[in-house]
Amino acid sequence: MNKREENMEWELEAPYLASLPRTTPFSVPDDYFKHFPSQVESVIFLNGLAEKEDLGFSVPTGYFEDLTSAIQSRITVDSFANRETAFTTPDNYFEKLNAAILSKTISDKPKTKVRRLWGSDFMKYASAACFIILAATGLYLNQQNNLKLERSAELVSEQMLYDIDENVIIEHLNETQTASNLSNAEMESYILENYTSNDISTNL
Fold first, then answer.
1. What is the pLDDT of residues 101-113, one digit of tens each?
2. Using CA atoms, how far apart are residues 146 and 127, in angstroms rounded to an integer?
3. pTM over 0.85
């Protein structure tokens, strides 16, 4: 029995079924079989991830807190990038720049301020008084210094006289004058005039 005879038998047994149009009741989306292998692989991969405890995704610290500001800054940067020129200069700006700088620097010369040396009459008199006081102080100190020098010279000469031995004085007097011309009274008066009592007592 061939296939045609078999088909005739079931058509006779089920005439309604045989009268139905021979079409496939199932429809397949376009390119279904073309994308079927990749879809199966993605489903297998997702099932494998679901079975793992650690899904492998992590969020940086403070991600959601900084997300708003990051988005706004990105939008701002993109808006500047989309513009043709962010900054513009006036026409012939660089050609006129040197002339503008020179005009400002030359015209704005610093004004010199003139100050009077003597602002008022009081300053004149006060300065004159200070000068006189300084000159008088200098003269006074110079005079006192000269007096000190003279006094120290006198003290040195007196000290030299005190240091001279009495016998040397007598010998000197004997050489300059004869002994007959000097009396004891003259010698005593000379010694008393040139020596103190302390010097005389120490030299005896």
1. 888 777 655 667 7
2. 29
3. no
